[in-house]
Amino acid sequence: MKRGWILQVLLLIGFLSLGNLVVTLLPIPLPGSTVGMLLLFLFLMTGIIKLEWVEKITSFQLKHLQLLFIPPIVSLIISFHFLEILKWNIFIILFVSSLSCLLGTAYTVEWYEMRKKRECK
């Protein structure tokens, strides 16, 4: 069943609010938006929410995602003198975080493929 734009946006806002509520009630050291996304993922994986119910709005968001990065980039350009002071710290942080993200993704994909092969046998 296809859902309209407004219902899809309301569904995402509902999961954002639910995530914020969970973080408020429980001592979880995560942002409410992250908890909301995890809850949405859980509901999608269990089939409680159908992919078609959020597909239109999420496709729109992914298509326009680069626009969300423009303000932080402009802010970095404006405060470039601050970056010169911390250049090595920022370089090390970027290198370590990028490497850990790359390795985490690689190991996750490898684990998933091994699990998939075992299930097929």
From TrEMBL:
<keyword id="KW-0472">Membrane</keyword>
<keyword id="KW-1003">Cell membrane</keyword>
<protein>
    <submittedName>
        <fullName>CidA/LrgA family protein</fullName>
    </submittedName>
</protein>
<dbReference type="Pfam" id="PF03788">
    <property type="entry name" value="LrgA"/>
</dbReference>
<feature type="transmembrane region" description="Helical">
    <location>
        <begin position="88"/>
        <end position="109"/>
    </location>
</feature>
<feature type="transmembrane region" description="Helical">
    <location>
        <begin position="65"/>
        <end position="82"/>
    </location>
</feature>
<keyword id="KW-0812">Transmembrane</keyword>
<feature type="transmembrane region" description="Helical">
    <location>
        <begin position="7"/>
        <end position="28"/>
    </location>
</feature>
<dbReference type="GO" id="GO:0005886">
    <property type="term" value="C:plasma membrane"/>
</dbReference>
<keyword id="KW-1133">Transmembrane helix</keyword>
<dbReference type="InterPro" id="IPR005538">
    <property type="entry name" value="LrgA/CidA"/>
</dbReference>
<feature type="transmembrane region" description="Helical">
    <location>
        <begin position="34"/>
        <end position="53"/>
    </location>
</feature>
